[in-house]
Amino acid sequence: xxxxxxxxxxxxxxxxxxxxxxxxxxxxxxxxxxxxxxxxxxxxxxxxxxxxxxxxxxxxxxxxxxxxxxxxxxxxxxxxxxxxxxxxxxxxxxxxxxxxxxxxxxxxxxxxxxxxxxxxxxxxxxxxxxxxxxxxxxxxxxxxxxxxxxxxxxxxxxxxxxxxxxxxxxxxxxxxxxxxxxxxxxxxxxxxxxxxxxxxxxxxxxxxxxxxxxxxxxxxxxxxxxxxxxxxxxxxxxxxxxxxxxxxxxxxxxxx
Length: 256
Ligand code: PGA
What we know:
Mean pLDDT: 97
Low-confidence stretches: none
Helix content: 40-55%
Number of helices: 11
Distance between the termini: 7 Å
Bound molecules: 2-phosphoglycolic acid
Order of helices and strands: EHEHEHEHHEHHEHHEHEH
Number of domains: 1
Structural class: alpha/beta
Largest sheet: 8 strands, parallel, barrel
Strand order of the largest sheet: 1-2-3-4-5-6-7-8
CATH superfamily: Aldolase class I
Strand content: 5-15%
CATH class: Alpha Beta
Oligomer: single chain
């Protein structure tokens, strides 16, 4: 059994009021910690407020949505290093989200550099890969995600995935309300695991592969019923703490 991970990606949503309300929405709730780990990734400026207000009993990990590819302090205006995130209590960081690949022109090499920077600061990277609608329509979905994954394996080695999470997020499913079917997600996750297993079977068998793209309370259980789906990276639905907790409970139930 692989312990599930449910990570909340708030994207660019939030305010101090929302953080307060969110914390009160989480208050008093417990999860089956041996079955599911909750990770919360608010915008960076809200990390201290959110992290500081979490009840220890929830055992939620704090994560950032991005980090610099530069490890050393320096003249990089606007950048935040993985070391700084760790210093602020972060344990996780999302790298290679499709919104950053597209909007910020992050290529495979940059994403790999961020993955390494995160690990050298002691953070667990959540590496996102996923094909666009055009790539899927052209029959190139598998090729696209394999390329994104291999680019990081080449730099980090298969062993780099001992302490990392992978998220399959088809771009056409993100924020569209059109989730991948459990079968599509299962087959893409199997493909990714097999790619790693060719180099390191043990690491591959332990790697948690999350699905992301319009995960909601209504479709979570069917996604988590798939053997290769070890949790979720949740955008829109994670803005409502009750929904996030329901998705995490579904993930815990699906780990059998
Ligand atoms: P969504 O976003 O759940 O709103 O589709 C997922 C993500 O981009 O991580």
